[in-house]
Predict the 3D structure of the following.
Amino acid sequence: MPGLGNRRMSCKRKFVADVLGENGRRIRELTSVVQKRFGFDDGAVELYAERVQNRGLCAQAQAESLKFKLLGGLAVRRACYGVVRFVMEASAKGCEVIVTGKLRGQRAKGMKFGDGYMIKTGHAG
């Protein structure tokens, strides 16, 4: 795409080292993939890796944290309430964690854990 100029993209992650890779190899690979996928000229794309400022307010970081807690064998309620408490301590207005699937028995069900102010449609009041 001629005449578009340089593109700067930033990737916010909990662990920046995962994006950078060994000696910056992975970030160069990602830059190359973006250039080829979107048809940019060589050197037209600059990729930056930034660390998430407040981990408690990042949904992806909290989902990953919950995943590791559940894979580690922690009970579903305990893991979810821990995540909700961590998010609320990070000065969030409200938080809701929804877990669905085979939680205990063979039958699937869903559980919701929430705290704070959440705007929803439906019954007002």
About this structure: The chain is about 35% helix and 25% strand. Residues 77 and 113 are 8 Å apart (CA to CA). The helical segments are 16-20, 25-38, 59-71, 76-89. The longest strand covers residues 94-101.
